[in-house]
Design brief:
By secondary structure, the protein is of the alpha+beta class. Helix content is 40%, strand content 16%. The chain is built from 10 helices and 9 strands. The longest helix has 23 residues. The radius of gyration is 19 Å and the shape is elongated. The protein starts with 8 loop residues before the first helix and ends in a 5-residue tail after the last helix. The mean pLDDT is 95.
Length: 269
Amino acid sequence: MKSILDNRPALKAEVEKIAEVAGYLWQNGWAERNGGNITVNVTDLVDDEVRNLPAISEVKQIGITLPALKGCYFYCKGTGKRMRDLARRPMQNGSVIRILDDCASYVIIADEPVLPTSELPSHLAVHARLVGSGSAYKATVHTHPIELVAMSHNRAFLGKDVLTDILWSMIPETKAFCPLGLGVVPYTLPGSNALAEATLRELEDYDVVLWEKHGVFAKGMDVMDAFDQIDVLSKSAKIYVNAKAMGFEPEGMSQAQMKEMTAAFNLPR
């Protein structure tokens, strides 16, 4: 079967990267059943032939109008699809879509009519903000890191930057590689417009946002960049949880030590 990836090495490499990350999400236990989503803006990787491909689906409504995305192309994980399957067969468990000129609808163009995630409106709303602001960020990832979700069940951790300071203090690399820290969105109905709007607000200041009692949502230069930030924050959460399981409150790096890190690595805060 002919694939949109044939003779398009850059697009193929990007989809292979998405598949690799999907495998990591599954292996880490962060993607039970069909949990989690990946959406990547691949507009810069399509050629004129792709732009002229006919639709293989009927016109689908996004549910919101996003003028910044007119004519854009996205790879999207399919609704009901499993990350473990996407890792092996990305074009059978996801699809490439084209945003139409009304900026409120899309069609699937390849490889199969796999309907995108039900959370597509919220993902595309984030991408519209990124495109509209001239950001180089192309990828969004939603997944369910176990220890981070567990920590979100402690009300004391949910104040602004409380978790950021805890996680930064567990290991120096976390502050170095996640210099914006972790935003927090209080529990909101999954898939709702309210969750999308709250996430957009937090993404103004953070690259990774924790959804209370649910999971995380990250943006990145590409899908690997988004995954790396989640992975680093998850490692810090594991260190914290393991210390608590050993029967003590982890001391963490001091504020003075973290300020030293900020200066030494020229971090934003």
